[in-house]
Amino acid sequence: MNREKLMKMANTVRTGGKGTVRRKKKAVHKTTTTDDKRLQSTLKRVGVNSIPAIEEVNIFKDDVVIQFINPKVQASIAANTWVVSGTPQTKKLQDILPQIISQLGPDNLDNLKKLAEQFQKQAPGAGDVPATIQEEDDDDDVPDLVVGETFETPATEEAPKAAAS
Question: Which SMART domains match?
């Protein structure tokens, strides 16, 4: 090997200045995830308690629902602090409404009215559907009788025509 290559290799392994010990490779420092530990210690100071047996948490924000299934819920009522941890799923309110309608109380009545109005705006022909169904039902009704006319005479007239062809 020539001298230039050796000097280049020597410079890459030296971690300090002139006169320091050479290392074969640089030490890689691991970055520890202290964020979670710091958060847990802060929550412990606030005094949160774990709330068991919560199957689902829904956070409503405009027309979007952030849904947590089987989350870990911690709360400190005195500090008005709620911690919901888990994997969130963002869904539209219209998609999740049939599942959560039983959970909604009377305080959400205004929101339900707004949703109903939005559905009617999205489907403008929705109000006309009962009228069209009613017209189709009229076809199944028995026609009114006409005085002097029977069903037997048209049937006898059609029978010879069918036999001729």
Answer: NAC (SM01407)
User: Is residue 43 a contact partner of residue 79, using CB atoms and an 8 Å limit?
Assistant: no
| Token duo for residue 163 | 């036999």
Give φ, ψ of 34 to 5 degrees: -90, -5
Domain extents in the chain: 48-93, 104-140
Distance of CA 19 to the CA centre of its chain: 62
pTM of the model: 0.47
Per residue in 18-63, pLDDT (tens digit) is 777 766 677 777 666 677 888 888 899 999 999 999 999 988 887 7
24: three-class secondary structure by DSSP: coil
Buried b or exposed e, range 10-46, using 16+ CB within 10 angstroms: eeeeeeeeeeeeeeeeeeeeeeeeeeeeeeeeeeeee
CATH of 48-93, one of 2.20.70.30, 3.40.309.10, 2.70.70.10, 2.60.40.10: 2.20.70.30
Query: What is the DSSP-derived secondary structure letter of residue 148?
Result: T
Question: pLDDT for 114-160, tens place per residue?
Answer: 777 877 787 665 444 444 445 555 566 776 777 777 767 766 776 66
Q: Which residue has the higher pLDDT, 98 or 31?
A: 98
How far, in whole angstroms, is CA 65 from its chain's centroid?
A: 6
